Each structure stands twice: as structure tokens, then as C-alpha cells.
Amino acid sequence: MSSEQIRKLIALSAIWIALLLAPYWMVPLGGYTALATRVLVLGLAAMSVNFLLGFTGVLSFGHAAYFGLGAYGAGLTLKFLAPSTPLSLLAGMLLGGVCGAILGTLIVRRRGVYFAMVTIAFGQVFYYIAFRWNSLTGGDDGLRGFSRQPLDFGLFKIDILSSANNFYFFVLFCFALIVGIMGFILRSPFGRTMIAIRENERRARFLGIPVERHIWIAFTLSCFFMGFAGALYALVNNFADPRGLHYSQSGDFVIMAVMGGMRSFWGPLLGATVFVVLQDYLSSVTVNWMSFVGLLFVLVVLFFPRGLLGFLQRSKA
Amino acid sequence: MNVLEINNVTKRFGNLVAVSGVSLNVAKGELCAIIGPNGAGKTTFFNLISGFFPPTSGSIIFDGRDITRLATDQRVTLGMARTFQITEIFPELTVFENVRISAEVAGGYRLRPWISRAEAAQVHARVEETLKLVSLETKTDRLVGELAHGDQRAAEIAMALALKPHLLLLDEPTAGMGDQETYQITQLIRRLHRDSNYTIVLIEHDMRVVFHLADRICVLDQGRMLAQGTPQEIAANEKVQAAYLGNAA
After folding, report:
1. Closest Cα partner for B223 from B12, B41, B28, B16?
2. Which chain A positions have a beta carbon within 8 Å of B94's beta carbon?
3. What is the mean pLDDT of residues A108-127?
4. Which of A52, B30, B132, B243: CA 20 to 30 A from A240?
């Protein structure tokens, strides 16, 4: 193995060890386990956005819609269909993914700012549906009246509702699953065509890659991941909020991805960590916490255009 | 057998007729150079062949198949590869990664979320072989964006070659190059043509390159085919001398 590979392996182990032990080191540092769970879920969402933004090179500003759809899919399943946590996750992922696949066919014909505008427009459509359809979604108040269910393995059950640690490890397992799939795809021939499109769309086309179809596949995959993250988020809160579909939520995900470093696989997770921890800490001090996050974002973009992780990697090298 | 048959192709942009009733046949193994003064419609003609946009009228036959209305990526899949006047590469990837994308697409793996060890080894061998052909084998791990201009052009040609094309379209391969680099690229194209038997159509401004390489020269002027023939015939053609070579000399 080259020293480069060894360094990557060490970094990767460090990330997973830190995540595995988070409930034990976060509490002494003044955090709490549920905060770590939120970081994981929002980090997964930011990584899904970055699957498109950082690795295919197209900016979706409406990805919160698929996040929110995932949340409602999971919540409605638990409330009306079946008291099963795995089923609710599957339903949320499918709802987000299938809606993304259908709208994606219209969206991928656009590029750049037009792509972003169309994604916002479709995202807002879902926001208003969730906001107005009181009888099903609970409207402005959000969807309540469901809670995550124990994991039933037949022989034994695991309580993930009252044990914050158990729930954290369950979310970490889900996170690892999806992140593993993402990493696998990015290292595949298809993943390399995504990067080709990001690097130079014209060259990709003239290598025989049908660019629109490949962007559509990447978009759809990222909507499935997003739906899954949204479903997890509904389980975190036992609540689905229409604001989870709003374009300002999409903006938060983009901020996390860009702040953490959109060219790196793990950057968005770091961005989400900074974002969520700052939000948690500052919102207890001031209602204007977003100004400080915004200020930090501006500073990062100005001085570390490759994001926090990009900066860390550079200063190490 | 003709690899490429272009019949009476015209392209209009509004009132401007960029290419007007041009026909051209390219035989297998032939190297055909397109020359002409600036604004003669050479690049538009190239864009019509490679499918950048469809012609207003006329037809294009490639390997016996009508491709007039086919999209670019479909033409590439059928075996047509091109390079650009301004190098189009993946600057933030290494030389190896650039050519690997191309080799994987050629292998039919572009939609695959996995690749087997044996297939990856095949792709690897194909990439190395191609890089050797363009003399980039010592620079495989360098970022393409950091290479010298001439090496970037060679990398772009390698990407085209890794597609195993039946027809190679080169748009001004020596554009912006010094004498040394021009010489190297010219030798490369000569090797591809003579030794590897590629069918090549190229646009070129440098007359030394054109007369050194081409089996046949086509002269475009104001969107029309002014003349075509062997380098000797073109050099002796009075119309061509008046329109083009006369100005240059």
C-alpha cells in the first residue's frame, strides 16, 4: 500500500470510530446523544445533496422536498398503515425517490441556474401540498400522532424509542448502509461518468455518454437517499414538519455541503456537524443564530473555497 | 468501402449559410484534411459530422448507416470520436482517470454500478496501451490540467482512441502549439494513420502539417467545397491558390 492509501485508511477508520463512540464522547463535551443523531441524519441529507452537487456538478435547490416527502411517507405509514419502523423507512424512501424520478425527467433538461430554479419550483409545490392538506398532513401544525416502534427481530426486540443510545446506533447503522451504497456507486464506472459530467459536460457527451440520462439517474438516486434521510428525520422527532420541505431547508443542506467541502465525500457530514452544533448552541443564546451561521458560511466560502474539509486536507498535505 | 459519406449537406443559421451543399466521401484508412480560410465553415462542417447540431438539409452516412438525425452520444457509440480546437478534457482528473472513463464507456460499462476484477484489468490494459500509443505512459498519475499544452492535446487524442473509433475527427490538432509540439503531434497522427490504420478527418491551419499528412485535401471556402484532391493536385489548383494559398504566400 502506498502512503496515500494508508493515510486514507487511517482517516476513514478515525471517522467511523468517532461516529461509533459518539454517545460516549459527546456527553462529557457538553452535548447529548440526540444531538449526535440529528447530525447523522442531516449529514446524510447533506451528503445526498452533495451526491448531485459535488459529484455530478448540478445544484438542486429543492432537495428538501424529497427529504420532507420521506418524512411524511414514514410518518403516514406509522400513523395509518403499520407500526413498523423498517416499513416506514422503506415507504419514506420510496415516496421521495419515486417523486424525484418522475420530476427528474422534466428537471434534467435544464442546466445551471435554470436547473436550480426548476428544482425550487417543484419543491415548493410539495411544500404547499403538505401545508394545505390539513386532513392528511396536519397542515401547518405538522404531522403528529406517531412514534418510532421497537425493532422486532422475532426472538427479541430492541427499544429505540426510550433509549437514546439504542436509537443512535440504529440511525448509525442506517447511515452506514446508505453511505456505503453512495461510496460504492461513486467508485463504479457509473460513478465515474457522473464525475466526467461534472468535470466537462461536452467532453462527456463526446465520449458517448448520454448526459441527460446519467444526470437523471444520479438525481433519482440522490432523491432516494434524501427520502431515506427524511424518513429517519421523522423518526428522530416523531413528527413531520411542512417546513422540512421548504426551499429554505434545501438552502440549509446546500450550506452544509458547501461549508464542509463539496468535492470531498465526507465534507457535507462535517458541514452538517458544524451547522447543527452551532444551531443547537447559538439558538439557546440568541434567536438570530442564523446570522452567525451565515457569517461563518461567508467566511468559509471566501477563505476556504474547498470547504472546511478541503482546508484541513490541504493544510495536512 | 466508405466509412463516411456526406451528401449535399447544408447548414443555415438564420440568413447565414455556414455550409452550403458540401459532399464528401472518406474511404476506410484514409486521412482527409479539411482546409480553408477563417470563416470558411470548417468547424461548422465538423460539428455536423459529429452531431453537435443537425444539418438543415442533406444526409450523412456512417458505416452504411444514416446518422443525419442521431444525437452525439449515439454517433460516438457507433464508432465516431472527435477532439476539439480548444482542448476538452477532465482537468482535475489524472491522465489515467481521463482515459479510463473513455475505455469504460467503450467497454459498455457506463451504466454499471460495479465492475469485476477481470473487466477492470481489461480496461486497465486498454488504458495503458492507449497511453503508450500517444507517449504519455510516464505521466499517467499527473493531473491533466497541470500538463503542458501538447501533452493535454495528446491526452485528448488518447481519450478519443480509447473509444476504439472507426473514424477519428481532429479539429486543429496543432492549434496553439510551438514547433516542437507540432512536430510531435504530427508524428503521432502519422503513426495512427500509417501504423494503426485509423481513418482520420482533420481540420488544420498549418500547411506543413497538412501536406505532410494528408492523402487527400478538401478546400472549403465561404461554406462551399472549392476543390478536393491529392496534396499535389491541390497545390497546383489555381482556384485554391487564388482563394487561399495565394493569400498565405
Report:
1. B41
2. none
3. 91
4. A52
pLDDT value of position B29 = 93
Q: Give the integer Cα–Cα distance in Å for B60 and B154.
A: 28
Is the predicted pLDDT of residue B214 greater than 50, yes or no? yes
Higher pLDDT, residue B243 or B161: B161
Which CATH number is B79-176+192-198 given? 3.40.50.300
B196, exposed or middle or buried, with CB in 10 Å at 0-12, 13-18, 19+? Answer: exposed
- Residues 15-54 in A contacting B (C-alpha not used; CB under 8 Å): none
Q: Output the average pLDDT for chain A.
A: 91
- Between CA B59 and CA B65 the distance in angstroms is 10
Closest CA to B50 of A111, B42, B221, B154: B42
pLDDT of residue B246: 54
pLDDT tens, residue by residue, B66-83: 999 999 999 999 999 999
Q: What is the DSSP string of A207-263?
A: TT--HHHHHHHHHHHHHHHHHHHHHHHHHHHT-B-GGGGSHHHHHHHHHHHHHH-TT
Give the model confidence (pLDDT) of A29-62 as tens digits: 888 889 999 999 999 999 999 999 999 999 999 9
Q: In this complex, is the C-beta atom of A171 within 8 Å of any C-beta atom belonging to chain B?
A: no
Mind telling me how many Å the CA of A215 is from chain B's nearest CA? 12
Could you read off the pLDDT of B122-137 as tens digits, one per residue?
Answer: 999 999 999 999 999 9
Residues, chain A: 317
Angle formed by the axes of helices B149-161 and B179-194, to 10°? 20
Sketch the domain layout of chain B as residue ranges: 1-26+36-72, 79-176+192-198
Residue A296: Cβ-neighbour burial (10 angstroms; 0-12, 13-18, 19+): middle
- B48/B95 Cα distance (integer angstroms): 29
Closest to A235 (Cα-Cα) out of A135, A141, A161, A156: A161
- Residues near B108 by beta carbon (within 8 Å), at least 6 away in sequence: none
Domain spanning B1-26+36-72, CATH class: alpha beta
- What does the pLDDT look like over B163-187, one tens digit per residue? 999 999 999 999 888 888 899 999 9
Distance CA A167, CA B217 (A): 73
Distance CA A298, CA B206 (A): 49
From the list B73, B89, B97, the residue facing A200 with the nearest CB is B89
Among A196, A208, A211, beta carbon nearest to B77? A208
Segment B98-114, tens digit of pLDDT: 999 999 999 999 999 98
Report the predicted TM-score, pTM, of the whole model to 2 decimal places: 0.91
Amino acid at A69: L
Question: If contacts are CB pairs under 8 Å, which of residues 156-215 in chain B contact chain A?
Answer: 159, 163
